Recover the amino acids of this structure.
């Protein structure tokens, strides 16, 4: 948690003289599991990503208990049995956009973002593809990527393996606006 606070602090305050900080105006993170018996999906609208345009650094901190399911029982099992949300309350991605972007020019960019993704107490290096659209001073973004549950020590009881896919599809989309001091 201290590491996350230091990263966010440096993004917001460390580069204020030269940089522009963008915060999430809206952000939705969803996941989908195509299971042989049942499809499982959830949506989280409680994430506020940060972008520092002077160095292309991005930070996402996702509250695990913020995911909403069609069934409250699914939500309860997700938090208690699989994600252990009381022990691991957040998923965090800190990374950097690899391409050069002109944030002052309206345009669409195909980008990659490389960084560290921590979920369920396990940190993994990741590179994800994304699309960024700059229009009228706002930055819209969207990304889809897969997460293998076993890479993050998330175990599914053998009785439930027919319900869950071993790899979950994650979609992240939102709009960033400039942070005004």
């Amino acid at each position: 948690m201290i590491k996350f606070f230091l990263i966010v602090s440096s993004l917001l305050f460390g580069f204020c003289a030269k940089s522009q900080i963008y915060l999430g105006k809206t952000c939705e993170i969803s996941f989908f599991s195509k299971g042989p018996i049942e499809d499982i999906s959830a949506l989280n609208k409680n994430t506020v990503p940060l972008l520092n345009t002077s160095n292309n650094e991005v930070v996402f901190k996702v509250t695990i208990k913020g995911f909403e399911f069609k069934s409250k029982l699914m939500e309860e099992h997700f938090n208690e049995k699989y994600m252990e949300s009381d022990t691991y309350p957040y998923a965090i991605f800190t990374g950097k956009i690899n391409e050069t972007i002109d944030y002052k020019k309206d345009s669409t960019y195909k980008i990659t973002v490389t960084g560290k993704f921590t979920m369920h107490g396990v940190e993994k290096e990741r590179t994800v593809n994304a699309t960024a659209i700059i229009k009228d001073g706002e930055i819209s973004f969207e990304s889809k990527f897969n997460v293998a549950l076993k890479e993050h020590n998330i175990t599914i009881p053998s009785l439930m393996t027919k319900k869950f896919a071993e790899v979950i599809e994650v979609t992240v989309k939102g709009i960033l606006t400039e942070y005004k001091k």
User: Anything to note?
Assistant: Residues 2-178 form a domain with the Lipocalin fold (CATH 2.40.128.110). Residues 1-17 have pLDDT under 50 and may be disordered. The radius of gyration is 17 Å.
